[in-house]
Amino acid sequence: MGDQTTMSRRERLRAETTAEIKEIALKLMAAGGPDAISLRAIARDMGMTAGAIYSYFATRDDLVTTLIADLYTALVDRAEAARDAVPAADPGGRVLAWAQTVREWALANPQGFRLIYGDPVPGYQPPEDTPAKEAEHRACRGLTGLVAAAWTGPDPGSYTWSDFDPGLAADIRATFPDLPPDAVALTLRVWGRMHGLVALEIYGHLRTLTREPAAIYHDEMIALIASLGLTPPADRPPIVAS
Questions:
Q1: Can you give the pTM of this predicted structure?
Q2: What is the C-alpha to C-alpha distance for residues 234 and 236, in angstroms, rounded to an integer?
Q3: Measured between alpha carbons, how far is residue 186 from residues 64, 66, 93, 162, 177 in Å?
Q4: Which of 13, 120, 206, 229 is most buried, most CB within 10 Å of its CB?
């Protein structure tokens, strides 16, 4: 009993320290860019020795990989939950729920958004198989599913499966066997419209031009939904920054 209690306490302390390491890494990135993420700098900030922090993450790349995996998974979890809270009979509402949740998450986690989609970490080489890769596949499948609910395009069309990354093509063909490659091209265009304005806002470009970025994003998503031939929901207000 005593050993179990001691082990539980150790696990809890380790989890708390790991969370603090991740938090400080993102703060360093916010202050100095991706190149500022350093295990030694984090150790100094926490009052730890370099040797002690290496017992949590053997290398900086291990830390970056864990950060990206955690952040990407959290983002996709939120987007999927928001989508699934809208009935399948309302595909336009599901598109808007996904899009607004992505923006909401990005505004609450700007450094996380930048780490996933924006700023490359100098010298970082992501492993081939990580939870981040699975989260990326989930995001692709989620967006493709939104497009699939609206797809009425021709088959064959302008694209072939060889126009896309082999891993992406194989994943989409296995999940959506009836979709043609043109639907994947449309999915990428949808992704670009969803993320383009978010990226402009996160990097500070949009707010220099308008005081209503939420309204602009909302209107763009309504236009996107209409372009897919879906009925835009009229009762879902834009999500504003907190």
A1: 0.87
A2: 6
A3: 31, 31, 18, 16, 16
A4: 206
> Per residue in 120-140, is it b (16+ CB within 10 Å) or e — as a string?
ebeeeeeeeeeebbebbbbbb
Record the tokens describing residue 22, joined without a space. 């991740």
Q: Which residues make Cβ contacts (< 8 Å) with residue 125, sequence separation at least 6? A: 61
Q: Are 144 and 183 in contact (CB under 8 A)?
A: yes
Buried/exposed code over 9-38 (b: 16+ C-beta within 10 A; e: otherwise):
eeeeeeeebeeebbebbbebbeeeebeebe
Contact 125, 61 (CB under 8 A): yes
Element (H, E) at 170: helix 166-175
Between CA 212 and CA 221 the distance in angstroms is 14
pLDDT for residue 229? 92
- The pair of structure tokens assigned to 4 is 């179990």
DSSP code string of 142-158: HHHHHHHTT----SS-S
Nearest to 70 by CA among 139, 23, 132, 114: 132
- pLDDT, position 236: 52
